[in-house]
Design brief:
The complex is a heterodimer of chains A (about 400) and B (about 280). Chain A is built from eight helices and 19 strands. Chain A starts with 5 loop residues before the first strand and ends in a 9-residue tail after the last strand. Chain A is α/β, with parallel strands linked by helices and about 400 residues long. Chain A is globular and about 70 Å long. In chain A, the strands form five sheets. In chain A, strands 5-6-7-3-8-9 form a six-stranded mixed beta sheet, with helices on both faces. In chain B, about 45% of the residues are buried. Chain B has twelve helices and one strand; from the N terminus they run E-H-H-H-H-H-H-H-H-H-H-H-H. Helices cover about 70% and strands about 0% of the residues of chain B. Chain B has one domain (about 20-275). Classes of the chains: A alpha/beta (about 400), B mainly alpha (about 280). The interface between A and B is large, with 52 and 41 residues. Strand 4 of chain A pairs antiparallel with strand 1 (about 5-10) of chain B.
């Protein structure tokens, strides 16, 4: 008998996409299809969402799961929380798993706050006794006591989310799985939530945390794993996993220089993206030069959308040419220059992601170019780190003293 | 922490029996779902609980006019209204469980794809609201019996048995249908049509007496006929159905429930992937 919170052995999840019958979702169609081709074996496209994962998670650990989109993070959580079944392999859970995959799942808008606490608590695996015992705490934590007997459809979205989170946060399960929910509510509630999650881990229970905002993983987790295309590539410290995660961007960058590896229909492919200043100051304009070949076979104008992403892959800004009324005719080549004014980036590494779109996506180039913002703060006074730490970007601001 | 019971999850294989211990552990979900359905149905309807009385009463009224007056069918000496009301009552129980349980999984698909709990509780819990409707309608039946001076015999004691048989029968169908509807939504269109056909093929609105002798065997092999006869015998003190039908109705109910459960079990673990 193991003494881990969770042990996973050779876990694989394969989604089979039936090439021929992917469109069949009616019994009549299914019957007709079998009658037409009684001897044909179904052909499947196999998609390995998770591939041979083995992992031991001890008690008292807050485990972060990081990886790029489609790496299998959410699939792993769905398997561990028993929402979906593995294709092969084994999961050994050391206790009950409570999940918080989407805030408010199981809330019914017509029911009152009180009724929803009981319904949601039951769904998440609490017994009536447990809910009763924690009821006051839940209500207190959510701060909606005045509206307990109001249907939740009349709640503000903030109240709704706070109540939902509170129920889940007071689960007494030995393992708690969380998928990207801490980014709810106001700053105060976020801080409270984060603290609550830390307490859970301190109790000796185990927290699994998936996030697309790596910053929260750093704040919350005591260890982390890094997934890439369904494989477990790193398991260990948070720093190590974050390092892997960040370096995956540069690997992707070298890969994506070859246009055929990039997603999109490929009717048109960017043949160059260049940031004018590879090193710049926070208050400099970001200038990006794009180069697009002609695509004479294409019908209709297209537009481009350019993102500035930070080192964690979070998009800081999206500059969509539609927003400024700029469309491009495919008949000729274009060399548009994007100039982003009045954006004060914090010092650090940034990368550019460009999409070329019409009705669908024609080309997406992630990490098309990178640039660095130097730590030359554009403020008149020298201040301590403390004065500049919070926030995602800098801003041009003044204080007008009243006299 | 080490004392907690460990759970081993492996890929789905073969046909198993449902995890009774887990179902029992999550009984709160059953209760909450059931009461949620009830609360929701009555909270925002103007007529509220009266609706549960009006619907079978109007149906029985129509049958007594169409079958009793227009077609002048026999009703074994009982006023036609009472006779058909008893039938409608039993039928509504059967049909209500099927229709509500079969649609329940798809109606709760956001839950199925996002939270783990024993999924069987969703279709099972629909029984609660149907039973409440049944109880309310039974109250009206009691009034009708008094008004028309019909006294039930000792067979009334067996009514809970028929009730159980009907629920088991309907749940078996509902469980299988709800599981299939996850993948094939047209089950939701076929099923009401199917129950409609059954309704006319079963002596609900008319008496078995009215069936021509050469067709009677066709009705006698229909387990729903047994169910109707048992119900009516218990409530209206008519002639008793053969004993083999009494046992048969319970046996069929059990059999269908087990079969439906197995179909559900077989398909359950794929729900989140296809719903």
């Amino acid at each position: 008998m193991r003494d881990t919170a969770i042990s996973v052995e050779h876990l694989t999840k394969v989604y089979r996409i039936n090439r021929r019958t992917a469109h069949i979702d009616r019994i009549t169609d299914a019957i007709v299809d079998v009658l037409r081709n009684p001897t044909r074996r179904p052909e499947y496209d196999e998609f390995h969402a998770l591939n041979d994962i083995s992992l031991d998670i001890p008690w008292g650990e807050a485990l972060g799961i990081v990886g790029r989109n489609g790496a299998g993070k959410s699939t792993l959580l769905k398997l561990l929380t028993r929402i979906t079944a593995p294709t092969t392999g084994l999961i050994d859970l050391g206790g009950r798993v409570g999940s918080l995959l989407e805030v408010g799942t199981g809330f019914h808008p017509e029911l009152t706050g009180r009724e929803n606490i009981y319904l949601n608590g039951a769904l998440l695996g609490m017994t009536r006794k447990e809910i009763k015992r924690r009821f006051d705490e839940i209500v207190d934590f959510s701060g909606v006591e005045r509206f307990l007997d109001t249907p939740v459809k009349r709640y503000s979205s903030g109240m709704y989310v706070r109540l939902a989170f509170s129920v889940a946060a007071h689960l007494e399960t030995e393992i708690l799985a969380i998928d990207e929910v801490l980014a709810v509510g106001d700053a105060e509630f976020q801080r409270k939530s984060l603290q609550k999650m830390k307490d859970v881990a301190r109790d000796g229970r185990t927290v699994l945390y998936v996030s697309h905002q790596p910053q929260t993983v750093v704040n919350l987790c005591t260890s982390a794993i890094y997934l890439d295309k369904g494989r477990l590539l790193y398991s260990g410290s948070v720093d190590g996993a974050m390092h892997e995660y960040r370096s995956s961007f540069s690997r992707l960058r070298t890969e994506q220089v070859e246009a055929y590896r990039r997603p999109g229909t490929g009717q048109i492919r960017l043949d160059g993206v260049r940031v004018e200043n590879q090193q710049q100051n926070p208050d400099d304009d970001v200038v990006v030069e794009l180069s697009l070949p002609p695509a004479p076979d294409m019908v209709g104008d297209y537009f481009v959308s350019c993102h500035v992403d930070d080192i964690n892959g979070t998009s800081i800004v999206q500059c969509d040419s539609r927003a400024v009324g700029q469309w491009f005719t495919p008949a000729q080549a274009h060399r548009p220059v994007l100039r982003i004014k009045n954006l004060w980036l914090k010092p650090g590494q940034y990368s550019i992601k460009v999409s070329v779109c019409q009705a669908g996506i024609l080309d997406t180039w992630e990490g098309a170019d990178t640039f660095e913002v130097l730590p030359h703060y554009p403020y008149p006074e020298l201040t301590s780190e403390e004065a500049l730490k919070a926030g995602i970007v800098l801003a041009d601001f003044t204080y007008e003293a009243s006299s | 922490m080490t004392t907690a019971k460990r759970t081993i999850i492996t890929p789905p294989a073969g046909i198993g029996m449902p995890p009774f211990r887990e179902l029992w552990g999550a009984r709160e979900v059953f209760w909450r779902f059931g009461t949620r359905d009830i609360v929701l149905r009555y909270r925002q309807t103007v007529v509220g609980i009266a609706w549960v009385i009006i619907q079978p009463l109007v149906a029985a009224g129509l049958f007594s006019i169409v079958f009793g007056q227009v077609a002048d069918l026999p009703s074994q000496g009982v006023p036609y209204l009472v006779f058909s009301f008893a039938g409608v009552l039993a039928w509504n129980l059967f049909e209500g469980v099927i229709s509500r349980s079969s649609a329940s999984l798809v109606a709760n698909q956001s839950l199925v794809s996002k939270v783990f709990f024993p999924r069987m509780l969703v279709p099972l819990s629909t029984v609660l609201s149907v039973l409440l409707d049944f109880a309310v309608a039974c109250g009206l039946l009691a009034v009708l019996l008094i008004v028309f001076g019909v006294a039930p015999g000792w067979g009334l004691l067996l009514l809970p048995v028929w009730l159980l048989a009907a629920v088991m029968f309907a749940l078996g169908v509902g469980l299988a249908a709800s599981a299939m509807m996850v993948k094939y939504r047209d089950v939701g269109y076929v099923l009401p049509w199917f129950t409609q056909v059954l309704f006319f093929a079963t002596p609900v609105a008319y008496s078995l007496e009215a069936v021509p002798a050469d067709l009677e065997w066709l009705f006698q092999i229909n387990p729903l006929t047994w169910l109707m006869e048992c119900f009516r015998w218990s409530i209206l003190d008519l002639y008793a159905p053969p004993v083999w039908q009494m046992f048969g109705v319970v046996g069929v109910g059990l059999l269908v429930l087990v079969a439906g459960t197995m179909v559900f079990q077989k398909m359950e673990r794929g729900f989140a992937d296809v719903i």
